[in-house]
Amino acid sequence: MNRRLIREKTVCFTGHRSEKLPKGDTLKHLRIKLSEEIEKAIQDGYNTFLFGGAYGWDLMAAEEVIKKKKVIDLNNPRYIRLIAVIPFEEQAVRYSLSDHELYYEIMPKCDDVIILNTNYNSRCYAHRNQYMVERSNRIICYWNGQARSGTAQTVRMAERENLEIINLYE
Q1: Which residues is 85 bridged to in the sheet?
Q2: For the chain, how many structural domains are there in total?
Q3: pLDDT digit string (tens) for 35-56?
Q4: CATH code of the domain containing 126
């Protein structure tokens, strides 16, 4: 279902891997904030959500979008698309068992899966990040301010493209 992306109606996600996410109640609170921010985006007219398939923030954001897709409101019907933008075919091979299972649980629930490269290469993550930023108008991130990370790179790309940046890091 490779429909053309409309930038003004598209949000992308970027954030840290599982080990840099909070734990326990703080993670539950973050998930609630993420869900609320996704709902706000839907209310603002966004209907397409891009995520990069990385374990941690990306998969958590995808889970929350999937929950929103299940909501049926006959008075205000909405069509929400979830699109995975995968940097290379075997991205999930080295994930932990639980992250690997979650990844393969989410993929069939996506409206589209875009795989940018057959094999890993040194630029594949940057290419994935640029692809998402160039097709989005808003970014919902979880970024701790660390200057050298893929999340930082994506936020800098979003700043150059003048995207609305919503950072849920506290």
Answers
A1: 114
A2: 1
A3: 999 999 999 999 999 999 999 9
A4: 3.40.50.450
